HACE1 (Mytilus coruscus), 253 residues
Amino acid sequence: MEFLKDLAKSLRSARTVELPDDKSSAYYMLMSMIIGNQYRSVSDLLSGPKFDVNYAHGRTNRNLLHIAANCGSYECLNILLKKGANVNFQDMSGCTPLHLAARNGQRKCIDKLLEYKADVNIRNNEGLTTIHWLAVNGRTELLHDLFMYTQDVDVEDAQGQTALHVACQNGHKSTVVCLLDHGAEINRPNHYGWMPLHFACSHGQHDTATILLQRGAVFQPDKNNKTPLNFCIEVCIVRDELMSTRQKQEYTS
């Protein structure tokens, strides 16, 4: 019987929880709920006009929509958007909620943000757009869907690198094929003269380099007069040296 009384008291208390008047405290209370996707509690606390959903806190200058997009709390993200959260708000690094959702592969959040007219072409402080974030992590299916919202497959970051450059660097074969199929320029150099083939070869991405060569990539030197072949040789030398060192260590141990 005592247990039931305590439970009833706890439930009454939960129903009367209110946001603190201090914006920072209110932000942290809501943030913890959003991370746990406690959308019913978030909805209740945001039912009045007390808290500005576009309030950004801390050195990162992120609002609650960034938090929801980053951790994939779809229901909370939907609530925030309905409450008027700025879909294109940029944090200290220039990232929008769409950037964070793309980086972490949060499909449902991406779809909802695009429904609310999120701009896929916004650049962060390093010049990275949504297409870069999807390519760097090999989110091929999401990348394919994104082409319904942008035609600029060769958009460059601050160093002149396109999504194809970063996909080749990380060896995401299906992403490379997807980008090429959508018209990515295969021999486009960055600001240092590195083409996608340079990135594939310098990072030992053999299969990716093979795809590029089959699709028409050329062995053109960069601004330091190094070709992709030079990088292949360097990678092989380093690999052989590491293997030799390891064998010596195993022999002497």
Observations:
- The chain has two domains: 1-119, 126-240.
- Residues 228-252 form the longest helix (25 residues).
- The mean pLDDT is 88.
- The two ends are 68 Å apart (CA to CA).
